[in-house]
Amino acid sequence: MRLSPRLNTAAALSALAASLLAIPLIAPGLVPRLGASSAVAASLPDPATGLTLAAGPRATAVLAGGCFWGMEAVFEHVKGVTEVVTGYTGGSPATAAYDRVSGGGTGHAEGIRISYDPARVSYGQLLKVFFSVAHDPTELNRQGPDVGSQYRSAIFPTDPEQRRVAAAYIAQLNRSGALPRPIATTVEEWRGFTPAEAYHQDFVARNPAHPYVVIHDQPKVARLKTQFPELAR
Fold first, then answer.
1. What is the active site of this protein (predicted)?
2. Three-state SS for 61?
3. Which of 39, 65, 88, 131 is 20 to 30 A (C-alpha) from 219?
4. DSSP 91
């Protein structure tokens, strides 16, 4: 269940409690899937291509992996990233609004547009963070409590080189067996990016006590800092 930012704190907590009561008890020895586990994520190999740092102007990467609040929070803590914007990508600009996208059927995914300095962080490093700690790339059309194609795992290359690097890394990870299931991430056609409404921008930083943020987003940032200390800030 997605806890809407429009809910006040009391309503959000009530909805959260109801959702937790609906979760079945976990059998001994089983671990709930709340995204790629730390053990699995730590074992992901570096991309065979796409790790070279390059001098040049600011570069852009567009990724989708569930609710864009947590995705934004993770990449805002990556060294070399200069800006992260939440928004909608994959569909028509005419339907790029939260009330439309959240209902599904628009073709859009909740995504982020990352502006970064390619002399400080490479596209391949960004992808490793994406597959390791930002979301669970093996879930199809969902992330945790958020279900639907609007929460799919997807990469939207903005040029042929990004497409080549992304496709090669997905194939490499599937061959490696580092993840417990095949990767569900799609590499999709670039159709532009529309920034989300203002209240979605920097949501985690502005709402650290929001129940959804505490449960689903802050742990991702913590994993980034633990597993990628050389990249985290």
1. 67
2. strand
3. 88
4. S
